[in-house]
Design goal:
5 domains, coiled coil, Immunoglobulin-like, single chain, membrane, 8-stranded mixed beta sheet, Rossmann fold, alpha/beta, about 20% helix, 13 helices, Glutamine amidotransferase domain-containing protein, 5-stranded parallel beta sheet, about 700 residues, transmembrane helix
């Protein structure tokens, strides 16, 4: 029986109830019989029985020394990117300060403040607002009986509301304080459908959509398109329905299309007026033309490398017998069909992605006109690789043909015939084609095998990335017009493929060389790029010369910051930054620009940035909380929401105030037990009652 808080009456029977119960029944029956017969002294006997019964029950007064335990209230502050709109962030900080000041007045309340949605926990944090995850973490060590409730300071765009909202009632009332304004409007540009990959040279179809919220503000809107940082172009797109458009995939690697819709009359932010599509360009089939000037041991190295790649279509022919060689062998025994020289070097020349001349010398097989076509093919964007044999140092050299105008090195007429190990130059260690080749040793001799023949050349253009005997140029890379040329002043790379003296990285070198010639973005030697991993942006600048310049990062909300680059002496300078909001980040060093798209294609955080209480209304209903607009309480004598401590069975919210549940939890620090009936007094009273009853009955 509870008398007061901490004070109760407890029973401690002197005999087991199994013994007391029959005794009580017999005693009561005897007393009732005496009363029924109207015997003298019956009430005195009843008094004696009652006193003895109380004595046997042994009641005592138990008092608990209680120490109150503070209830816990959690305040979750939304710091997601949508809170940066307008004055929401400042309003939220002011309200947080008001709340903490008023909560200090309650001595029985512990307040925990957590910030959620600032991007510190990864990409999901900036794509979506997760307030309930933060709430669960804040109260993970708190028994639910101590929870007084929670207050969410947010714009209402929350994306992790539990499916079973009723279970939140055990936390207490969950109140929402909205940071935005009523009747907000906005326009957004969304990507409905976009492929991840596309074939180079062929367009892919995109579907975009412009939505005005809450209602359409115009029939159509201008959308500005910019591909890979190029010149902008504008199209008109209808508002409120899907729009299909073509996006040309112009090169391998990432093709980035930026899109920006013009602002509407009602706009909360322009961050969701911009979006970007990243399509990885892949080549359907790489067509390579290999021309071998004569049969030799290294010819199979080129063929094996190119045929090992199933995506490569190789056209290979070898000049077995030049026109001046007349040995009487019938033509039908040399070839089953006539080789289609005109078709390859005139009609279908532009269809090839790479042309390789291996040990070729002028012998009248290819007329000058076809060699002029190849030079023009390079100028227009083609790729040419020349592996020099003995013939390059003679008057029959390709340098003495129209191809000489695109070749990066001029023969001296000499050859070097002695053992040497190819070495990577200082420039080569910064060039992605030769940087970090397996076996290279910047502080000594490389570990790969030797070569024995080299054509002596003098570079006229391009970059020398490898040297040979006597530090003479061995591998030269050059850009000519829109195309690229590589010249290898030796025909003995096949020694590496045969494993001579341990071999060498011929497969890796030729793979990189071919991809650089075909303009793969990952092998650009002077480039600025940005990679995204979750919400981490890595900015990388490749350059053949050390470049100490910093870069400028522009965020989706048009804020700028400077990033210092760290050069690793291998041609790469790197900087990293954590993105705090989804969208398009632009990086520029003054000469080049790179784009980084952070977050999902259509991040929920930017899908609807209007402040609303609709999403959290079920939470408020099931937990007894309230939804209040902070703007409604501004400008008063005491701005902000009032806070009250309320009983669990009373309303938890009202006009301009919110309640936090007072649970009254405690811990017991001590207990005192005082008997209510002293044994001596009880026995004397029972004995006296019996004596009086005996005397009464004896008269």
């Amino acid at each position: 029986m509870n008398l007061l808080d901490g004070t109760t009456i407890a029973l401690a029977p002197l005999l087991p109830w199994a013994v007391l119960a029959p005794l009580f029944v017999v005693a009561v029956a005897v007393v009732l019989l005496a009363v029924f017969r109207r015997a003298r002294g019956a009430w005195l006997r009843a008094l004696a029985v009652l006193v003895l019964a109380l004595a046997l029950i042994n009641p005592s007064l138990v008092h608990e020394n209680r120490e109150p335990i503070k209830d816990v209230a959690v305040v979750v502050l939304d710091t997601s990117p949508s809170q940066n709109i307008g004055d929401r962030k400042a309003r939220a900080e002011r309200e947080l300060q008001n709340l903490t000041e008023r909560l200090k007045a309650f001595d029985d309340l512990e307040v925990r403040v957590v910030r959620a949605g600032d991007g510190a926990s990864g990409a999901a944090a900036i794509n979506e607002t997760h307030l309930f995850d933060a709430l669960n973490r804040a109260m993970a060590d708190v028994p639910r009986r101590r929870m007084a409730g929670a207050v969410l300071i947010t714009d209402g765009q929350v994306h992790d509301i539990p499916e079973n909202v009723a279970k939140l009632a055990e936390i207490g009332p969950i109140h929402t304080l909205l940071t935005g304004n009523r009747d907000e409007g906005d326009r957004r540009l969304a990507i409905v459908q976009a492929p991840t990959y596309g074939l180079v040279g062929k367009p892919v179809e995109l579907t975009i959509r412009i939505d005005d919220m809450p209602g359409r503000q115009s029939q159509d809107a201008a959308v500005t398109l910019r591909q890979d940082g190029g010149a902008p172009r504008t199209i008109r797109v209808p508002v409120g329905r899907d729009f299909h458009m073509d996006f040309p995939v112009t090169h391998g690697g990432q093709n980035v299309l930026e899109m920006e819709v013009e602002a509407a009359k009602q706009e909360l932010t322009l961050a969701n007026n911009r979006t970007a599509v990243v399509v990885n360009g892949v080549r359907d089939r790489l067509r390579v033309l290999l021309v071998s000037g004569e049969p030799h041991a290294g010819e199979r190295t080129w063929r094996n490398l190119l045929k090992a790649d199933p995506s490569v279509d190789l056209v290979h022919f070898t000049i077995l017998r030049p026109p001046e060689k007349q040995d009487g062998t019938p033509i039908r025994e040399l070839s089953l069909i006539a080789f289609p020289i005109r078709e390859l070097f005139e009609i279908k020349l532009d269809e090839f992605d790479l042309i390789i001349f291996d040990r070729y010398r002028r012998r009248g097989v290819l007329p000058q006109m076809y060699l002029e076509n190849i030079a023009e093919y390079v100028q227009k964007g083609g790729a040419l690789l020349e592996a020099s044999g003995q013939g390059y140092s003679t008057p029959l050299s390709l340098f003495r043909t129209p191809l000489g105008q695109v070749m990066p090195a001029e023969p001296t007429g000499q050859t070097i015939d002695r053992p040497f190990k190819p070495t990577v130059t200082e420039v080569g260690r910064r060039h992605p084609v030769t940087s970090g080749l397996p076996g290279d040793n910047p502080n000594g001799d490389p570990t790969w095998g030797r070569w024995f023949h080299q054509v002596d050349v003098t570079p006229t253009n391009g970059s020398v990335v490898m040297n040979g005997a006597d530090n003479r140029p061995l591998l030269i890379l050059d850009r000519v017009g829109k195309g690229r040329v590589a010249q290898l002043a030796s025909d003995q790379m096949w020694l590496w493929s045969r494993g001579f003296e341990g071999g060498g990285p011929q497969a890796e070198l030729l793979r990189r060389l071919a991809h650089w010639l075909m303009k793969e973005p990952e092998l650009e030697e002077n480039d600025l790029r940005a990679r995204v991993d979750g919400n981490k942006i890595t900015v990388e600048r490749r350059s053949l010369e050390p470049d100490p310049r910093s870069v400028t990062l522009t965020t989706p909300s048009d804020e700028t910051r400077t990033l210092e680059m760290t050069d690793d002496k291998t041609g790469r300078a790197v900087a990293t930054v954590i993105a705090a909001e989804p969208g398009i980040y632009r990086v520029s060093d003054g000469d080049r620009t790179a784009l980084a798209v952070v977050g999902a294609v259509n991040p929920p955080e930017l899908a609807d940035v209007r402040s609303t209480g609709d999403k959290l209304a079920p939470v408020a209903k099931d937990t007894g909380g309230g939804i209040h607009w902070i703007s409604d309480t501004e400008g008063g004598a005491r701005p902000g929401i009032d806070i009250r401590r309320t009983r669990p069975d009373r309303p938890q919210t009202g006009d301009g105030w919110i309640g936090l549940r007072a649970n009254g939890d405690f811990v017991v620090t001590g207990v005192s037990d005082v008997p209510l009936l002293p044994i001596g007094a009880v026995l004397a009273l029972a004995l006296g009652a019996l004596l009086l009853a005996w005397r009464r009955e004896g008269r």
